[in-house]
Amino acid sequence: MYLIEDISDSGDFGSQWGKGDTVSSQNFSWNQTRLVVNVSPENVPFFDVLVFPTRDYRSERFGFKEMGSDFLKEISSYNVRRALPKPGKCALVVIDMQQYFFPLASHIVGNVLSIIEACRSKGIRVIFTRHGHKDISKDGGMLSKWWGDCIMYGSSEWELIKGLGPQDTDGLLDKNRYSAFFGTELDESLRSRGIEELIVTGVMTNCCCETTARDGFIRDYRIFFVSDATATVDEELHVASLKNLAYGFAHILSTEELRSHITNH
After folding, report:
1. What is the pLDDT of residues 39-82, one digit of tens each?
2. CB-count burial class (<10 Å; 0-12, 13-18, 19+) for 12
3. Do residues 37 and 111 share a domain?
């Protein structure tokens, strides 16, 4: 089942469903983050429906539990080192916003996009990471032993979520471990540009995002971690990571706080 987030105007046929309705996958064919409705030739050939997988689907695939708390309030006793990034010295890292993780990432897409747009408007470097394995026997490591299920390089699930792809001015980094620093040229690329701070967004909060944040911290980057532009399988794990990071590794802030700061700087 899929939850309709938005729907184009397609006359009488389009009136069958509306925003907030759930629909069966039998009515659709999957195309990136959109579903294409197949209808009779005498009506319209197709129209696009922007959908988010329902909670049941997310639960089935990832053990997902809905997240909706005021995270900053929940971690306030730990998040005592308040700071904001310096636009001329920071870069945004958008971690693993790929088709594989869409069931988890769907509810933060809007926030991530708004941060990307704010950063681009001020000339802040945006770097996308993409997790994938070319040969599990050679590059799977403990990840493949731990999870069994790995994202294969070049597969449809390996692709970035539609609308979140890099522009010519952005960076794109392929990785095969939790940390975006491991086995990549991220550190060298950042230092060559005089970047001293990292803004972390994406998925999963407690795996690739947290590991990258910690790895950046021990490399002496100042870390900013966006509480509502990161996501994982449930709120308990998400909040636990935010608390740990706030305690020892990162400044935690909201999308609105970050976007307002960058836009008005």
Report:
1. 333 333 333 344 444 444 444 545 444 555 589 999 999 999 99
2. exposed
3. no
